[in-house]
Specification:
The structure holds two protein chains of two kinds. By secondary structure, chain A is mostly helical. Chain A has helices at residues 3-11, 18-34, 42-58, 69-85, 100-108, 116-122, 125-136, 141-148, 152-174. By secondary structure, chain B is mostly helical. Chain B folds into two domains: 13-71; 73-164, no CATH class. Chain B has five helices and no strands. In chain B, helix 3 (74-91) packs parallel to helix 5 and helix 4 (106-128) runs antiparallel to helix 5 (136-163). The chains are: A mainly alpha, B mainly alpha. Chain A binds chain B through residues 15, 18-19, 22-23, 26-27, 30-31, 34-35, 40, 42, 45-46, 49-50, 53-54, 57-58, 112, 114, 117, 132, 135-138, and chain B through 1-2, 4, 6-9, 11-15, 18-19, 21-23, 25-27, 29-31, 33-34.
């Protein structure tokens, strides 16, 4: 059964079908949200995830079937976290200017090392969000712009600045 | 793009019973909201049904009253018309009923007493006969009493006018 068919079933009153969407997306959302819990608090992350799933369930009637449920769920979860924890600014800077030079420089040059995850813990939540959504979860800048309510240019620039920051600290701390 | 396995570690994954626990909470939240909605819907439906029943009853009652009035024999309708016309006429009298303690002229007092007697007689006939008793004798007696009442009222008015 496709995702669309499952959503249609839920819309028609079959609540139990929601479990399929939950099963498919729980771990994905949990590990993503875990990156934003400062104390790596499992209970806190469980609460964010739970609230996101409940909100998503009640919003299913407004869900655009041409979109992916996962993208929508992540957006709800990020907003939930934003409101509760203030981890992200209410609105990221949409007027962020396109820094073409920086973007080009880090488009291909950047190389991920697992040690960088420790550095990622130290950088701001908004930079971390753009980085993980693009580099790990595979979302496009357009999708990230919609999810975080920022501009396309802001998403690209934030990503490049994050990569630069990661690389600089990594080279400094690990001497590579 | 970075391989997810090279980024997420085992520590990022939920613990063993986490998924089960969270799903239980979500399911209970969904069920409780649904049952609240159902209760609200039941209440609204019950209220609407009660309202409909009231309207239906009122409609049936109106219809019954209408039919009952329409089914009354012509004679009863005429009698009712007499009665209501005389009652209205009586209402505008300066002295409506006889009060023995009131200082009134003897002639007027006797007329008022007569009218009280007529009213008592009318009421007695009405109380005695059942709703569907439209016997000729009763109808005639009633009409006679109405006629007498009208004449008495006329007398009272004349006496009062003469006294001024």
């Amino acid at each position: 059964m496709t995702e669309k068919q499952i959503i249609q079933k839920i819309r028609n009153g079959d609540d139990s079908s929601y479990r399929k969407l939950f099963e498919e997306n729980y771990n994905r959302l949990f590990r993503f949200m875990m990156q934003f819990s400062k104390k790596k608090d499992y209970d806190e992350v469980e609460e964010w995830v739970q609230k996101a799933f409940i909100k998503a369930f009640y919003g299913l009637s407004n869900f655009n079937l041409s979109s992916k449920f996962k993208t929508w769920l992540f957006t709800i979860a990020i907003n939930e976290m934003k409101q509760e924890m203030g981890l992200l600014r209410n609105k990221l800077n949409s007027d962020e200017e396109l820094d073409n030079h920086l973007i080009e420089e880090y488009a291909n040059e950047f190389e991920w090392h697992y040690d960088m995850k420790i550095i990622l813990e130290q950088i701001s939540a908004e930079k971390k969000a753009v980085f993980i959504l693009f580099e790990i979860e595979g979302y496009s800048h357009n999708e990230i712009a919609n999810m975080l309510d920022i501009s396309y240019a802001a998403s690209r620039t934030i990503l490049s600045r994050t990569k630069k920051e990661l690389q600089t600290i990594w080279q400094k701390e690990f001497g590579k | 793009m970075i391989n997810q396995n090279e980024f997420y570690s085992k520590n990022d994954e939920p613990k063993k019973y986490s998924k089960f626990r969270v799903w239980r909470k979500i399911r209970s939240e969904i069920r409780s909201t649904k049952s609240k909605r159902m209760e609200l819907r039941s209440f609204a439906l019950g209220f609407a049904t009660a309202l409909l029943a009231i309207f239906a009853f009122a409609g049936v009652f109106n219809l019954y009253t209408q039919l009952t009035i329409e089914r009354l024999p012509q004679q009863v309708k005429i009698n009712n018309a007499y009665k209501s016309a005389i009652d209205e006429f009586e209402k505008i009298l300066p002295v409506k009923s006889f009060d023995p303690n009131q200082d009134v002229d003897l002639v007027l007092a006797s007329q008022l007493e007569k009218m009280n007697d007529i009213n008592t007689a009318i009421n007695t006939i009405k109380n005695e006969r059942n709703d569907r008793d439209f016997s000729k004798i009763n109808m005639q007696r009633l009409r006679l009493l109405y006629k007498m009442k009208l004449e008495t009222i006329e007398q009272i008015i004349k006496i009062e006018e003469g006294g001024k």
